[in-house]
Amino acid sequence: MKKTPRHGADRLETIENRLGAAAVSDATVAHRTGVVRSYIAALNAANLDAVAAVFSDDAVLLDPLGADPVAGLPAIRAFFANGPFLHPIDAALDGEVRVAGNAAAFAFTAHSDGKTMRIIDVFEFDENGKVSRMVAYWSGANVSTGGR
């Protein structure tokens, strides 16, 4: 039996049903978007305390996905202090933050130490509005030289 593609009102109804199942309030979207913006600002300021403030005490980082997990706030602080914050960072969002379910996804570009990195991060949030899991999507293919 051949399936016919959905068009028009049928397609819109399907999208609306899917959105309803993953709906989040405007306040939740605003909070999660604010957390992402605070994180980017903290990277730019090399403010370890502000970076740590977005994460829960038992948060886990996979940066990048496939790397060994960085688990717990002390390890997260050490990760940033001994890695990203060794050189000044100039980071900026590439487009809007996407929020669905308990997560926020965002693309950003970071310039540091003569390199440019194009990264997508996904933050998963706990019931207290803190980031409980961060997964960074990037590889060598997303790093180029000649950045700021």
TrEMBL record:
Sequence ranges assigned to domain SnoaL-like in this UniProt record: 36-134
InterPro entries associated with the record: NTF2-like_dom_sf (IPR032710), SnoaL-like (IPR037401)
Protein name per its UniProtKB record: Steroid delta-isomerase
Lineage, highest ranks first: Bacteria, Pseudomonadati, Pseudomonadota, Alphaproteobacteria, Rhodobacterales
